[in-house]
Amino acid sequence: MIDHDCSKNPKRHTATPAKPYHFVDSGLPNVYLIGVKYWTCTKCGTQSAEIPAPERLMNVIAESLVMKSGMLSGAEVKFLRKRAGKKAADFAALINKTPEHFSKLETGSLPLNEPTDKLIRLTYGMLIADQELLARISANVEEWLSSIDLGKKRAGKITIKKAGNSWSDTA
Ligand SMILES: [Zn+2]
Predict the structure, then answer these.
(1) Which residues make beta-bridge pairs with 41?
(2) Which of 6, 81, 96, 111 could form a disulfide with 41 if both were Cys (CB 3.0 to 4.6 A apart)?
(3) Is it the case that residue 151 has pLDDT exceeding 60?
(4) 102, 88 in Cβ contact below 8 A?
(5) 88 to each of 77, 100, 104, 153, how far by Cα in Å?
(6) How many CB atoms lie within 10 A of CB 161?
């Protein structure tokens, strides 16, 4: 039980590249924000950030996942599926998986293979039909598909930068 009001004991910070804000509310373990204002409770260390344009931020995170090299993690698959507004069973059907199989991909108890990873990214892109993302993909689709380099070790951090009241991935 928390015996105090965290917002009464704030220490204010601005997240920098050297000390980014760990954005656990994204639902992903590896998303960090730069440029955002946040405060830390001096009693218990709880952090809270001011997040402008949260919908835009979530879309930029999704975009960054679609464009990243290295395989998607189960949590990242789940993130993209939820951003696309699909129930697990419906998304599974779109990529020709049984709900049971797809559920194991999301929990990470089954590893993704390369064709499925690419199909999930493309399916997300088509479902969301975000102009900017589609433009990024189609500008150089062959290079993108080969640069995903799924054999490569997964990229670690996803870092998103606040730009005014919007967001951009720093890749
Ligand atoms: Zn506290």
Answers:
(1) 10
(2) 6
(3) no
(4) yes
(5) 10, 10, 11, 26
(6) 18
**Gap from CA of 11 to ligand 1 centroid (Å):** 11
CA–centroid distance, 15 to ligand 1, in Å, is 19
Per-residue pLDDT for 67 more than 80?
yes
Q: How far is the CA of 43 from the centre of ligand 1 (A)?
A: 5
Across the beta sheet with 47-49, what order do the strands follow?
A: 10-14, 37-41, 47-49
From ligand 1's centre to the CA of 149, what distance in Å? 43
Q: How far is the CA of 12 from the centre of ligand 1 (A)?
A: 13
Domains of the chain: 1-52+156-171 (no CATH), 69-154 (1.10.260)
Q: Are 171 and 64 in contact (CB under 8 A)?
A: yes
Strand order in 21-22's β-sheet? 21-22, 31-34, 158-163, 166-169
The model's pTM is 0.86
In this prediction, residue 71 carries a pLDDT of 85
Compute the average pLDDT of residues 59-73.
88
